[in-house]
Each structure stands twice: as structure tokens, then as C-alpha cells.
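Sample intake sheet
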Amino acid sequence: MNLNDKDTAAIAEYYAEEKLRLTSKLKHVESILKKISGDNIDVDSGVILTKSGSKAKKRGPKSIWGKFILECLKECEHPLSYRDLMELAIEKKHLDKSKFQSVRASILNSAFRLRAIQGKIATVGEEGKKEKFIVLTDWLNETGELKESHVHWLQKEMNFNPEPVNIADLPKPKYEEDLL
């Protein structure tokens, strides 16, 4: 087939329009099937879907403390105890020491959400010790063990030998914004 530039451009435009039309039709069919079957989880990403078939969004204001915890862990590049996080919060946010209890409650609440709902952090402990350290789930390998550099830091600086985390217990994100 010998086509000139004008014919090639017309064919490309036609197929681009067809692709757009068919893609929108396919999305409509998928949303109707999800409504009918009652399926409320996206197959590709595993996030919750609304009744209309679109991805659900979290309600309410987003916690500044959850973001603070993640930023501190990334900045320090080593596990942190809850007490370390609370002291960092008072220092970095220039808060009075009298606010310690409210900061403590906020950090514990946000850490719980990050760990139990979003699955972004995990806590590592040592058998026979009460103290736990917060780690990013990115720092864990497929068997639930911390990266060697973090284990070495905990042993050297804190005299702490972390137990592996049960990866199966880590929750999967339910909202699209948690995937980021």
C-alpha cells in the first residue's frame, strides 16, 4: 500500500477517534458490570469503589501527624521509637513541653492509622522487650525482615535485635491516595 501523508493522517485520526470511543464504551460496560455484580473492589489496584464504580476517596481532613511520621522516617533513614517521634514533633513544630500529652495522643493515633489501615508503617519489636520501633514497610523484605543497614543500626545504637514482621498481617491500601 502506498499512502501519501494526507491519507496516513486521515487514517491515524480515524483510528484515534475509534480508540477513544471504544475505550469510553468499555469503561461504561465495566462500571455497569460492577454495579450489577456488587463488586466494590478494583481488580487492578485493589482499592474500594463507590456504587457508581468510581474509586472511593477518603472523607474528612488529612492528618498532619501521619505525614509528619512518614517524613521523619524518610529523613532519619533509620527506625524510630514512639518517644523519639514525640520529641522530634515538639522540637520541629516548636511546641511547648506542656503539649506533650496531646502530641503523644496525636502521634499514637496517626501511627495506628498508618499501620493498621494504610499499611505504610510497621512496628518491630524484640522478644522480651516492651519497646517497639516504627519502620516503613518499604524497609521490609518479602520475609518481613528489616534491611541489613537498619538491623545493624538498631543493634549498634539501641542494643536491639528486631524480630521479623508478619507480612501477611500488613493491610493493603483501600484508597487510591494511599497507593502514592
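Comment: The radius of gyration is 24 Å. The CA atoms of residues 87 and 100 lie 8 Å apart.
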